[in-house]
Amino acid sequence: MITYEQLWGADPDAWRDAAAGWRSGPEVLDRRCAEVVGVAGRLADAWTGPAGRAALGRLEALRTAVSDGRATLLEADQVISEFAGRLGRAKALLRAAVTAAEGAGLTVDRRGTVSLRPAVPAGAAVPPQALPGSAATAVTAAAEAVRARAAGQIRAALALAGSADAETAARLGELARSAGAGMVDAGLAAAPVEVPPPGAAPAAVRRWWDRLPESWRRWLLARRPELLGRLDGLPVAVRDRANRLLLAGQRAELLARETLLLAAPRMPWVVVELRRLSRAVAGIDALAARLAGGSAGGSAGGSAGGSDPRGYLLVLAAGGDGRAVVSVGDPDHADGVLTYVPGMTADLAGAAGDLGRVDRVLARCAELDPAAATAGVLWLDYDAPDFLDQASRRDAATAAGPQLHRFLDGLRASHDGPPARQTLLGHSYGSLVVGTTARLPGAAADALVLVGSPGVGVEHAADLGLPAGRVWATTAGNDIIQYAARRPTGLLADLVSQPGPPGPHLAYAAALPGRELWFGRNPADPGFGAGVFAGAPAGHGGYWDAGNPALDGMARITLGRHP
Length: 563
Fold this sequence. Notes:
Elements: H1 4-9, H2 12-23, H3 25-46, H4 49-103, E1 106-108, E2 114-116, H5 133-181, H6 186-190, H7 202-211, H8 214-223, H9 236-262, H10 268-291, E3 311-317, E4 323-328, E5 336-341, H11 351-368, E6 374-380, H12 388-391, H13 395-414, E7 421-427, H14 429-438, E8 447-451, E9 471-474, H15 489-496, H16 504-510, E10 516-517, E11 520-521, E12 531-532, H17 549-558
Parallel strand pairs: 5-6, 5-7, 7-8, 8-9, 9-12
Antiparallel strand pairs: 1-2, 3-4, 4-6, 10-11
Helix pairs in contact: 2-4, 3-4, 4-5, 4-8, 4-9, 9-10, 11-17, 13-14
C-alpha cells in the first residue's frame, strides 16, 4: 500500500527520466551492431576456410542477439513511462484534494487524515460554536461535506498510485524473465507465422495476436517489425515498438536517395524531389525529437505531472508528402481518446506542429481534470490536399474515410478494460474526412468535433449518425473558411454590402459566416443542428492558441463534458 507521505514525495519526472534512459538504449545497441558488422567485414577479408566461416557465424549470432534486445529496452521504457503517467495523475488528484481541504479551513496531517482545525485563534472570525444553532449546524455540515470529499479523493489517489506500483512491478518482473529466456526461433524457421495482411479486420488481428505464443510475438517484433507496425487492432505498445525499430532505417533510406540525387544533373524533377526528401527528413527528425521525450513544438504546459506524455508511433511513411499517426499517451489504457485529423497542406514535414495541437488539448484536459486518463492521436494517414483546386473536391476525403474508420475500430479492438470514450476532431478539410468517416457503416466515434469546417458533406448534424448533443462545431468570425462558398459571388456580395473601401480585410472583419459552403451547410450555422462552442477571432489556425475558448471547448468535449 502506498502511503500519503510516499505519494506526496514521489517524483513522476524522475521516472520519466528513467524511462528516457531505456528509450535511448536501442540507439546504443545499433552502434554496437554496426561495430560487430565492421569487425566481421575485416575478418572476412583476412580469414578464410571453415574456421573463418565459423567465426563469422558466431559474430552474426552475436549481432542478432544484440539487435533482438532493442525491443526489450523499448518495452521497459513503455512500462516505466506509463507508470510515471499514472503516478502523475495520482499526485495531481492528491494535490487537488489537499488544496480544497485547506481552502475550506481544514487540516491534512502527515498520514493524509482530513479534519477540522482544532481551534480558532483569538481575534479571528466568530467561531462556529458562537453562531446561532441553525447557522452553526450549516457551517459544520458544509465543512463535513468538504472533509468527506477530500478524504475520498485522497483515498482514490493512494489507490491509483498503489495499483500502478503493483502492476508495474509485475510487468517489469515478467519482462525480465522473458528477456532472460532469450529468443526462441527454431520453431518459427520450420513453421513461419502467418501474419494478417495490412487492412485486415481489427477484431481478427486482435484475436490472432492474443492466440500467438509469447515467444513468437517476441520473434516477430525483433526480426520482422515491418509486418506489425501498420496492423490496426494490434496493441498500441506493440505497434509503437515495431515502428520505432524501423524509424532509423527509413531515415537512412531517405538520406541515401538524397545523396544519389545530389550527384545527378539539376533537372527540374530532381530539384523537386530533393526538396521533398529534405522536408521529409526534417519532419522525421522533428517527430523523433518528440518521441525521444522533447516537445512536439508548441506544447502548452504538458501533462498534469509537468511533462509531455510519452508518444506512441503507430504509422510512419515517407513516400509522397509522407504520413504519420502518433498518439500522445497510451490509448489502450485511457478513459478517453481524442483523434485529430488535420486539413489542407498537412504532411510529414509539419506533423510535429500538428502533434503540438494534440499536446495543447491534452494539457487543457489535465488542467480541467487532473485524474483523467486521456490520450490524443494525430491521424495523418491520408493524402491531404495541397492546393485549393484539390481541396474543392471530395476525392481525398472519400479515399481517407474507410482507412480512418478501420483505425478507430482498431483502437476499440486493442483497448484494455471498459471501452474508452472516442472523440473524432477534424480541422478544415479534415472535418470533411471526419464527416465522410462518420457516414460509413458502424460507429466511428462517440462524439464529433468540426473546427473551421468547409462543410462535412451533409446538410444536418443528424445525417452524421450520432444522437443530438454528440456533434460539435466552431468557426471563428474571421476564419476565411467561411468564404469557401458554393457560389463564387458569395464573397463579392459580402464585400460590396460592407461600408468603406472594398478589400479582403473587410471579409474578415465583417464576420458574416457563409451558410452554404463547398461541402454543405456550415456546421457552425445554427441550422446545421450541431452544438456550437465559442472561439476567439484567431483566424483559421488559431483555435489551439493559449486562452482561446475553443481550446477549452475541445478539451471539455474530449473529457465528455458539454463546453
